[in-house]
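lol forgot to send this yesterday, sorry. struct tokens for the thing we talked abt
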């Protein structure tokens, strides 16, 4: 998971967890069911338009609102490969990594447009907009957080760690 390539879907500022997955769908925790409704209140056609591997780029304060883990679960299950924004709500930031969804803080994300094709190189800490050839640098993800992403989230990481410990 060192490199992510995808098409950009653009959203504004203060995209809260209710816009990511509306509370009316929280009667289930089934990722496949949640995926059918991701971003529905922000863009009713989002799920029909996007394809797995696409990337959401938003303005500041993405993921504000409640602390529910359903939001990153729904995004990941829908096939969103990553989210880029200048800032994230702190609880969403942690929940995203815990669920295995890569997110990147990039102040210049306002320069990336819907429909652009971008490439995220997690090892070098660069995002390249293939549409206009601009490159941006972000702070590389710390090793422990990379391990969470590579494992598919905290639960898988913990399971793998326990399994390795039992083999010794």
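and heres what i got for the seq, position by position
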């Amino acid at each position: 998971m060192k490199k992510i390539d995808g098409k950009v879907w653009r959203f504004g500022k203060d995209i809260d967890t209710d816009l990511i997955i509306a509370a009316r769908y929280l009667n289930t925790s089934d990722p496949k069911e949640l995926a059918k409704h991701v971003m529905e209140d922000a863009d009713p056609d989002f799920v029909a338009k996007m394809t797995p591997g696409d990337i959401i780029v938003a303005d500041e304060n993405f993921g504000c609102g409640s602390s529910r883990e359903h939001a990153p679960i729904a995004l990941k299950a829908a096939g969103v490969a990553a989210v880029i924004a200048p800032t994230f709500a702190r609880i969403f930031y942690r929940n995203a990594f815990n669920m295995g969804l890569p997110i990147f803080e990039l102040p210049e994300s306002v320069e990336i447009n819907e429909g652009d094709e971008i490439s995220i190189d997690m090892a070098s800490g660069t995002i390249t907009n293939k549409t206009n050839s601009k490159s941006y640098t972000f702070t590389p993800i710390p090793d422990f957080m990379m391990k969470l992403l590579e494992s598919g989230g905290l639960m898988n990481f913990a399971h793998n760690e326990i399994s390795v410990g039992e083999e010794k």
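The chain has one domain: 3-167. anyway ping me if u want another try
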